[in-house]
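> @MW can you paste both from yesterday?
MW: sure, first one:
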Amino acid sequence: MPYADLHVHTTRSDGCLELEAVPDAARRAGVTVVAVTDHDRLQPFDAPVVERDGVTFINGIELRVSTPAGQRVDLLGYGVDATPALEGLVEEIQLNRVERGQAIVDCVEDRLGIDLGVTVEDGFGRPHVARAIDAHPETAYDYGDAFEQLIGNDNPCYVPRDVPSFEYGLGALTASCRLVSLAHPLRYPDPKAALALTAEPSLEAVERHYAYTREGVDHGLVDRAIERYGLFVTGGSDAHDDELGIAGLSRHEYEQLGIEEIPEK
């Protein structure tokens, strides 16, 4: 049972869990520390680390960036104290997310001849569309079908979104966060290239513990990167529902990160 789940999403992006309900979900899972890492979204916390109903909240963010080779990867920022640069970047991304989300909704509604009844606002993502398609009584698509046949990459209603460069995104996170980690490295089309990014000194950690759904992932790739670059280890369930603690860190592993320590001035 993990002590810390450092990858949790809420309704502030594409999760199903209200932010206020996270402490109860954490207690059910026996988790003491939760990092709320909504996609491209800042949290309404007044500090990098806060306590809520007996649970330690890490103010976090998951930011998608594009590498020089064109691969898109996700960076996890922990202990956020947002600079104006990060605030401006997030605002730009959210505007693009809304425009892109509306374009996807319009395409699906036109293609299927239905009204999805969704409101496109900050934090909106494709999972919102997939859930609406699944729930609509006039479609034969379930959640997975929606991605596989309609809104997934290279499908008829897929619309790409703008993402910042790896260099720019990492710089904004480094200036605002106590630790930056590469998320779920074995999910990318080219894991080796993604892990090579951790040679960058300010990218100090990698998400080693993660609930991969496919079999045969080679954790040795991650372990070798950890040893080669002297990386910290992070981990989390990437929860988009109310089930926390599927993956995460032991207390010892979490304390090695020093996220709760006050940085020297």
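MW: second:
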Amino acid sequence: MPQHIGIVACSAEGAALCYKTICVEGAGFMGSHAHPEISLHTHSLADYVERLDRGDRAGVAELMLSSAHKLARAGADFLICPDNTIHHAMSHVLPHSPLPWLHIAEVVAAEASARGYRKLGITGTRWLVDSEVYPEKIDAQGLAWLRPTEPERDALNQIIMDELVQSRFTPQAIATFQRVMDRMKEEGCDAVVLGCTEIPLIMNDGNSPLPTLDSTRLLARAALRRAVTGTSGR
């Protein structure tokens, strides 16, 4: 029997895309209309933002662990979190978690290595791009990386938190991301991490100046492989 996937959600659009990807692509592993059992739990996004704003990683971890324990009681076998930003609390989460996790940045970095990329641009919220969530995992694969500039971080964060998580998708937001990615390409990046799970709703290989690493769908596919085959690898 496939394993039961537990989703520790944070923002709605990213969690919904992750859930939908598992359900739709499950058919490729299990047959028409089939997918593994899935449970999802989330606290209010406002609760996470309040803790992020004050730099309270332990507080973020408490929310994640609260969801983790509820999902364990629901029968989940392992956990994923379709939110890159709150992975910076994972060092507080893992020692106390009732279940194992797939780490979104590990999944993305492994995929980048498998595709032969050498230098990755990192996009996401300011909390995410200021953190070591992606640099640590990219370094472990022997790859280089580039963060947005300070003004770029502010612009991307505003789009993500004031627009994308509110289900607002505008041509102006796409143009801003394209400018940032163009600059990263000029500085030697050969791919870009869509390091907020809402970014794939507006950016993809069709409109990005660089090949994209879609963290949301890559995590969903890794979870699907683990649930069905017992391994999250390609």
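> thanks! The chain is about 50% helix and 10% strand.
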